[in-house]
Write a structure and sequence with these properties.
108 residues, alpha+beta, two-stranded antiparallel sheet, elongated
Length: 108
């Protein structure tokens, strides 16, 4: 406190705490893939126990947009992850693509 009044100190401290709280409420842009993988696994594990509104809320923490449409008897799903989830989603899709290409090589 030393160089300022109690009111100034409390105002500054309150502002610092508000900034820190807001930072903690938002997933960091450079979130660890391991942390994101655990979050997705928890979502999958708890999916059947969640009411519809909670499912929607949880998906909205990962995806900016999800669209599904029926085309030729198949369901086509398109999605746009939030910016801080994009690296994780890209990594998962790349891994899936590699696994599928390996499977095709072994099945031919």
């Amino acid at each position: 406190m030393g160089d300022c009044t109690k009111e100034v100190y409390e105002t500054r401290k309150g502002a610092e705490l508000l900034i820190e709280r807001e930072r903690l409420q938002v997933t960091p842009v450079i979130a660890s893939l391991a942390i994101q993988r655990r979050r997705v696994q928890n979502l999958v594990d708890d999916w059947t126990k969640m009411p519809g509104g909670e499912r929607k809320r949880m998906l909205s923490l990962i995806f900016k947009e999800i669209q599904a449409e029926h085309v030729d008897g198949k369901v086509i799903v398109r999605f746009m992850p939030l910016p801080h989830w994009k690296p994780y989603v890209e990594a998962v899709l790349a891994r899936k693509e590699v696994a599928e290409s390996i499977s095709v090589c072994f099945n031919t």
